[in-house]
TrEMBL record:
Subunit structure: Homotetramer.
One example of a Gene Ontology biological process annotation: homocysteine biosynthetic process
CDD domains recorded: CGS_like (cd00614)
Gene Ontology CC entries for this record: cytoplasm
Gene source species: Spirosoma endophyticum
Function statement: Catalyzes the formation of L-homocysteine from O-succinyl-L-homoserine (OSHS) and hydrogen sulfide.
UniProtKB keywords: Amino-acid biosynthesis, Methionine biosynthesis, Pyridoxal phosphate, Transferase
Name by which UniProt lists this protein: O-succinylhomoserine sulfhydrylase
Pathway: Amino-acid biosynthesis; L-methionine biosynthesis via de novo pathway; L-homocysteine from O-succinyl-L-homoserine: step 1/1
Sites bearing N6-(pyridoxal phosphate)lysine, chain numbering: K204
Cofactor(s), by name: pyridoxal 5'-phosphate
Stated family: Belongs to the trans-sulfuration enzymes family. MetZ subfamily.
Amino acid sequence: MQKQTKAIRIQADKSQNREHSVPLYLTSSFAFESAEQGKALFEETEEGNIYSRFSNPNVSEFVAKVCMLENAEDGIATGTGMAAVFASMAGLLKSGDHLVACRALFGSAHQIITQILSKWGITHTYVDASATEAEWEAAMQPNTRMVYLETPSNPGLELVDLEMLGRLKQKYGFILNVDNCFATPILQTPIDFGADLSVHSATKYMDGQGRVLGGIVVGRADLIQPIRFFARHTGPSLSPFNAWVLSKSLETLDLRMERHCRNALQLAEALDAHTDVERVLYPFLPSHPQYDLAKRQMSAGGAIVTIELEGGFERVSAFFDALQIPTLSSNLGDSRTIVTNPNTTTHAKLKPEEKAALGITPGLIRISVGLEAIEDLIDDFTQAVEKSADVVKEKVA
Ligand SMILES: *Cc1c(COP(=O)(O)O)cnc(C)c1O
């Protein structure tokens, strides 16, 4: 069966009510039919639900679907994407270990690595997304236990070569941990390139409609085991309600990503052709510096388009004022198109040299392309590009 069919057909077992749509299991705990069963469940000689911090039918259904989509053996869901990222590190790393990470990281992942893991004697080395194989190798130490990265990155849309890292993993024996949030398993399955773990903020495309928070880490069963132990006892569990919403959303993920990516490519092409747009970054535009790599490891370019407008914050401000359709928000991965200026919002706290390394300039705009009719988006972005260019010209004159 195709993945799309399975994403729709994988379901929690039906109850005696024969419901067609999976019910919501809003229960903190589960009853034992006998003292014997309670004993067996705790001894793990019998599989079953005990308490929703450990497992819950709605959460298990969501995990089963993501494992299927990612070609993963096992997984664990969490209340947010950051809880998944943290659990994937805290469950596997110990004092004295070294982590190699790609520099272009989601802000909170950067904080975990530099401010939290460091307190426990876990050291790190950052590598640029565009680093060569030799540069990645130069970062390796005898105690390097994990390599952590995002591809494509936020907001610069830089790609890391997963096949190359899969090869390095054979040589150095690290755990390859990939945040696959931007691509989703529909466009990219890191495990097929040798990754051991794939983590997600399910808050983004998996929900895709800006309703709930959630996270998940899937991968090798022997690595998920210590992560599950960590999560079971520290409690970053996903709520059954959010799992129910997310599992339903996975039924349409493939369909939504197809439209998201088609819209994003068309908008990127239209803006690229416009003389008042300084630069357009999109992995599936031939002008992207890693276009060939994008074509090798992704089946479509994703739904984030990053553009650069000349005229700094003043231009950005006029551009945002002129836009009629998009929402101004720092979130992404929504049916509604969202624009943000990373320099003054998501990445505002970075030092100037960190911004420079990530290509974050005052005129950079991240567009999370939604599911609206593409004609409307192109018209709206085009008029706002032109209107904002005029506003800036008038001020100069
Ligand atoms: C949003 C995001 C996260 C964090 O997810 P939350 O659900 O907000 O905790 C992690 N990584 C990436 C790439 C993200 O976009």
